[in-house]
Amino acid sequence: MVRMIDINAIDKPNWCPGCGDFGILLALKGAIVELNIEPENIAIISGIGCSGKVPHWLRTYGLHGIHGRPLPVAAATKLSNHELTVFAVGGDGDGYGIGMCHFIHAMRRNIDMTYIVHNNMIYGLTTGQTSPTSEKGMRTKSTPSGVIEVPVNPIALAVSTGATFVARSFAGDVKHLQKTIVDAVKHRGFSLIDVFQPCVSFNHVNTYDWYKQRIYDLQAAGHNTGDKMAAFVKSQEWGEKIPIGVFYEVLSPTYEDELPQIKEMPLVKQAIDNVDISKLMDDFV
Ligand SMILES: Cc1ncc(C[n+]2csc(CCOP(=O)(O)OP(=O)(O)O)c2C)c(N)n1
Ligand code: SF4
Ligand SMILES: [Mg+2]
């Protein structure tokens, strides 16, 4: 299912100069190096959007899938070979809009993987339409009179839906983001990292300066990550002061832990020993 992307085909990131996606890629690379995980033991599954290009620029296994669907593909990858470190990567439109159902079900299953959402509060790739996290009143190409709906709050949703590691970081603070990714990967269970990612081309409201003036670090403020109600209260903070860091972390059995079929060995190894998949390979590859 996953394959090595031909990195020679796309030599370097082609995001707009100054895009927050560069900071996320840098932090992810740094985290992988810090964690000392071999590239062949990592799979990065992305959706469609500017954010979806991440797997192209890392020498790991990767799949640049379809819009809104990185989570089910990442889940299938993890269940096929639970010895892999699996990342799902996508945008706010991808994950909190078209992919919202997958987001909810992935969280309540507590599959051990790390979901990084490039939350730029806009559709970047399609040149600036409203996303599910665009702020109320924001004027965009698709809402010239201002957004009417209340934005999705991914942190509150994650805390209440079963994610066992819930964090927010900022693409403009690579050190913080790298540490958050390292902690998320070390956590056994579903980890969400919602990343504030300035889109310098199409979101002229939520800029680097806008975030810098507002964000503060929950860990520096002494937040208790084991307290679910405190996490929920913190998830409601928005406006003059906006928290980043780990909101909530709890240890709970993963989906893989409770799946008897993979107790002895990863599914992929069982299949190789016992099942002839050559016809399937001929049909699909
Ligand atoms: C099924 C489907 N619907 C719509 C699109 C068009 N489309 C491509 S990317 C995108 C939204 C991108 O926004 P986001 O997910 O926030 O990613 P970003 O570009 O901001 O990183 C849309 C609507 C598509 N490719 N596939
Ligand atoms: S459109 Fe926005 S999100 Fe996409 S590459 Fe440009 S700055 Fe980044
Ligand atoms: Mg977006």
Shape: globular
Strand content: 15-25%
List each distinct ligand once. thiamine diphosphate, iron/sulfur cluster, magnesium ion
Helix/strand-derived category reads: alpha/beta
CATH architecture: 3-Layer(aba) Sandwich
- Assigned CATH class: Alpha Beta
CATH fourth-tier homologous superfamily: Thiamin diphosphate (ThDP)-binding fold, Pyr/PP domains
Helicity level, as a percent range?
A: 25-40%
Mean pLDDT: 94
Number of helices: 10
Q: Give the number of DSSP strands.
A: 9
What would the keywords be for this entry?
285 residues; alpha/beta; Rossmann fold; 9-stranded mixed sheet; 9 strands; binds thiamine diphosphate; binds iron/sulfur cluster; binds magnesium ion
Overview of this structure, please?
- With 285 residues, the protein is an alpha/beta fold.
- It has one domain (3-284): Thiamin diphosphate (ThDP)-binding fold, Pyr/PP domains (Rossmann fold).
- The chain has ten helices and nine strands.
- A nine-stranded mixed beta sheet has the order 1-3-2-4-5-7-6-9-8, sandwiched between helices.
- Helix 1 (21-35) crosses helix 6 (174-186), helix 3 (92-98) packs across helix 4 and helix 5 packs antiparallel against helix 8 (228-235).
- The longest helix is centred in the first third of the chain and has 15 residues, at 21-35.
- The mean pLDDT is 94.
- The protein binds thiamine diphosphate (TPP), iron/sulfur cluster and magnesium ion.
- Iron/sulfur cluster binds next to loops.
